[in-house]
Amino acid sequence: MKDGKFLTLGIETSCDETAIAVLADGRTVLSNVISSQIDIFKNYGGVVPEIASRHHLENINGVLDESLAEAGVTLDDIDLIGVTDGPGLIGALLMGVSTAKALAFAKDIPLVGVHHLMSHISANYIEDTELEPPFMALITSGGHTEIVRVDDYCHCQVLGGTRDDAVGEAYDKVARVLGLGYPGGPKIDKIAKEGDPEAIHFKRVYLEKDSFDFSFSGLKTSVLNYINHEKQAGREINRADVAASFQEAVMDVVAEKAIQAVSQSGMKKLVMAGGVAANSRLRDKLGALCEKEGIALYRPRPALCTDNGAMVACAAYYKYKSGQRGSLEMDASPSMPL
User: Of 112, 122, 205, 311, which one has the greatest count of Cβ atoms within 10 A?
Assistant: First the structure.
């Protein structure tokens, strides 16, 4: 505690960002330091788990020191440590969990493990300090595409998820075939602005009536087949048109299902969460649909959409305030259910 404020240290290492933040009273960011490995994995076309773990090990102490210094505090001022304990890459998760347990033991600080997706949802509490549950959440990221009913800060219900590829995963694969590089999401979002979203029709997959599940493997395959067909025919491929048409097919389904979920629930609030929530087309499309339907839309700034320690600290704060505690026996869970 410092200056009468409850301080939470949040540690995030579920994939390839080593991120640590300090929050005051759950919502005020004092520091939010991120060491990204994107430049490393550009050469591989994706994250290599063993390399990611090694870089977490090399970077985490420096990121911790920088975060504490930026916040103007020491470990003795910290009241709570929150850490992502799943889901994610097991080796990467263990780097964060091990660090959190060591700090908690050495300084006798309470420890809370938080679910990665609950952290992404919690980024909205930082962005809008007036936001409170209940609401509907649309989570879109490299590994997840889910519609979640959030009833309070620590309880939620998954209404639908992806049956195969997540949105971000499909983006990465299409970007790779188009020769855009890694990470695919920002690359496609950028080049799509130069293309015609109606140039190529890719089928929208809605699955069964009233289902909130998603499936993007068929769409991904359609894009690959189109590219191969055009190459075999000797025709030049307009990458901007392919990217724009692919993106529009994805966003039509994602946005419509999210709006349908909100409408059926009787709620009037929808929050965006996850790395793909930074996608400009998704933000614009949902913004227009929500305005039309009278739904309040909450969108974290792009820096809070991607993995960061601030969202972890926020989720940990509310979990701790609800009476939940972790222990030094905590372990990482790479496939932890929400």
Answer: 311
- Residues 92 and 157 both lie in one domain: no
- Look at residue 236 and tell me if it is in a domain: yes
Write out pLDDT tens, residues 4-45: 999 999 999 999 999 999 999 999 999 999 999 888 888 888
Does residue 114 sit in the same domain as residue 137?
A: no
CB 146 within 8 A of CB 156: no
CB contact burial 291-310 (16+ within 10 A = b; e otherwise): eeeebebbbbeeebbbbbbb
Percentage of residues of the chain with pLDDT beyond 90:
93
CATH code of the domain in which 212 resides: 3.30.420.40
Amino acid at 208: E
333 within a domain of the structure (yes/no): no
CA torsion through residues 318, 321, 324, 325, sign: positive
Task: Answer yes or no: is 272 within a domain.
Answer: yes
Query: What letter would DSSP give residue 47?
Result: -
Whole-prediction pTM value? 0.95
Rounded Cα distance between 6 and 93, Å, is 26
pLDDT tens-place string over residues 280-318: 999 999 999 999 999 999 999 999 999 999 999 999 999
Q: What is the rounded distance in angstroms from the CA atom of residue 89 to the CA atom of residue 111?
A: 21
Distance, C-alpha 225 to centroid of its chain: 29
258 pLDDT higher than 90:
yes
Write the DSSP string, 175-216. HHHHT--SSHHHHHHHHHTTS-TTSS-------STT---B--
Amino acid at 196: D
Neighbours of 329 (CB within 10 A): 6
Looking at the fold, whether 82 and 160 belong to one and the same domain comes out as no
Which residue's structure tokens are 């309070």?
A: 152
Query: Which residue range is the domain that position 189 belongs to?
Result: 133-300
Give 338's pLDDT tier (boundaries 50, 70, 90).
confident
Residues in Cβ contact with 68 at an 8 Å cutoff, skipping those fewer than 6 apart: 22, 31, 74, 75
